[in-house]
User: Fold this.
Amino acid sequence: MRIARHIAAIPYSGIRKFFDVAAETEGVISLGVGEPDFYTPWNIREQAIYALEHSRTVYSSNAGLPALRKEIAAFLERKYDLRYDFKSQVLVTVGASEAIDLVLRAVIEPGDEVLVVEPCFVSYKPCVVMAGGTPVVITTRPENQFRVTPEEIQAKITPKTKALLMGYPNNPTGAVLRRGDLQKLAAFLAPRDIIVISDEIYSELTYSERHVSIAAMPGMADKTVVINGFSKAYAMTGWRLGYAAGPEDLIAAMTKIHQYVLMCASTTAQHAGIEALKNSDADVARMRGEYDARRRVMLEGFRAMGLPCFEPLGAFYLFPSIKAAGLSSDEFCIQLLRQEKLAVVPGTAFGQCGEGFVRCSYAYSIESLKEAMCRLGNFVKNM
Assistant:
C-alpha cells in the first residue's frame, strides 16, 4: 500500500467538501467557512508593505521575531493575565493550526491517548492520529451549553491519557467557559499529570464578558499550552500567523520540530503582527460589535422558524438543531444547497455528536445573512 494506513483512514474535511460544492454552484450563499468578511485593518497592511519596501524579507529566528514575541507576551499579560518570558516561552507559528500540530507531535508517543472535547474544530482528531496518538472523545451537549466538566473528563481518563485538547470559545458551537467553569476544571486537572492544550484563537470574539484562559487558573500555567493567532480577531486568515505560549520545555520541543519542518513563519506577516498587537484594539472592537449584531439577527431568525439554537457567546458561529426536520445533518445540508442554494456545514464535520445540527457562520454581511435566513426559512416551511 503506497499510502500509510493511518493517513488513508483520515477523512477529508467536512467543511471543505461543502465549500467546494458551493463554489461550483452559481448563485449560492455560503455560510460555510469561518473567514471574516472584513479587510485586514489598513495600519496592519501598511506595516507589511513597509516591511516589503525595506526588504525585510529574510528568515527570522526559528521562534519568530523577538519584537513580535515580546508583543505577544505583553498582549497575553494585559488581556488575560498570563505571564510568559518571550525569549523562551513563546513560539510564532504558521497559523494556530501549526501550533496544535506541533504540541501534539512534541508530547505524544505511540499508545498515548488525547482527550478531545467535541464538537470541535475539524483538525483536532486528525492531528492526534498523525502524531501517533489515539483521540478519545468527550461529548458536550447543548443542555450544558456545550461546556466540558470535570466529571466528563474523569470518565474518560485512563493510564494512557497524556493530554486534553479543547477549544473555547468553541468552533462550531460558540460556547465559552466562564471563570467559574475554569476554576472547577483547574481544581481537577492541576494535581494530575495531563497536559492541557487550549485553543483560544477566538479569545477576542466574546460577547457577554471577557475571555478567561485556563492557563491563568491556579496550578495550570506549567501544564498548559495556549494556542492563539491573528486570523480571526484581526481578519488575517491568509497571513497564516499564529503562536503558542507555555512551559519552556514544551515550547523548546515544539520549536525543534518547527525549525526542521518550516524554519519560520513569514517575516512579512510577522512585521504585520507586531502592528496588530500594538495598535489595532479599536479595529478588533469594531469588528466584534458587527459580529454581535449579526449574531442576534441569526439567532432571532432560527428561533422564529422553530429551529432550537443555543445562544453562542463567542466566535462567529451558530449551531442550530435540525432534528425536527427528520433528516440527517448531511441530508439537510445537501437538500438545502440543491433547493435554496444555501450552503451550511453538517454538524457531523465536528464529531459524531454533531448529528442533528448544522454550523452556520455569521462572518458575512447583514444583507447576506438576511437573505440566507429567508432561503432557510423557505426550505424549512416547505419540508
